[in-house]
Write a structure and sequence with these properties.
Structural class: mainly alpha
Low-confidence stretches: 32-39
Mean pLDDT: 80
Order of helices and strands: HHHHHHH
Number of helices: 7
Radius of gyration: 27 Å
Oligomer: single chain
Shape: globular
Length: 229
């Protein structure tokens, strides 16, 4: 009996206990979602990408100290992790939003600092990346970022994925950097190969830059409403 002499309604008790049960389940659901997010962040592909980011300062330190063989090993290791993180992400279906951001960012940071160092460093005994190639590579990247920004601000295009020409260009730029590091690691036979790669990478960078400009221009024009004559 309740204090006013009436028996408690069984439905109200059931509803109250059900509501309490739902409240008790909320922290468990939040914990489960938090654990799920951590698993996504710390999956194998993202771990390899984070490892590649951590290798960048070590690679630069080895280059600065003139330890070009160690720098070459670190650069090749970073390239291998780049290959495997994509393969594992597709094979195990471990793609994630943070991985889609970190993976290209790690690649670009490695190339930017690598090109800057092996263009400007005074301690290179064999060969350096010519300034004109580094300039063209950086201008192309700046144009890509500018067009991606315009597409997002003007027409709300959130994705501006790399084209096939862009991917080939990035691979050739990485091979060029690797050849320069290898040549400075006292492998003289790579000097002529590096000089050949300068021209190939330049051509590929110009072609991919033109391709990105055409794609961005087409997307901007297609987003504009048709003018009524």
């Amino acid at each position: 009996m309740s204090r006013d002499g009436l028996a408690p309604h069984p439905r109200s008790d059931a509803a109250e206990s059900s509501a309490l049960g739902r409240k008790d389940d909320l922290p468990a659901e939040k914990r489960a979602r938090s654990i799920s997010r951590r698993v996504v962040i710390l999956n194998i592909p993202n771990t390899l990408t984070l490892l590649r980011l951590l290798l960048i300062p070590v690679f630069l330190f080895a280059s600065f100290r003139g330890m070009f063989l160690a720098a070459l090993i670190l650069f090749v290791t970073a390239a291998v992790t780049d290959i495997f993180d994509g393969l594992i992400a597709r094979r195990l279906d471990q793609r994630s939003r943070i991985g889609a951001i970190l993976d290209p960012a790690a690649d670009k940071i490695m190339l930017v600092f690598g090109y800057l160092y092996y263009t400007l460093a005074p301690n290179l005994p064999m060969v350096r990346i010519p300034g004109w190639l580094t300039f063209v590579v950086f201008v192309r990247d700046f144009l890509i970022m500018m067009f991606a920004y315009l597409l997002y601000t003007r027409v709300r295009v959130k994705k501006f994925p790399p084209s096939a020409a862009g991917k080939v260009s990035t691979v050739l730029q990485a091979i060029t950097l690797g050849a320069v590091i290898g040549a400075n690691a006292f492998v003289p036979r790579l000097v002529s190969f590096a000089e050949l790669m300068f021209r190939i990478a330049l051509l590929a960078t110009l072609i991919s830059g033109g391709d990105y400009i055409r794609r961005a221009k087409r997307m901007l024009l297609e987003s504009q409403p048709a003018q009524v004559s």
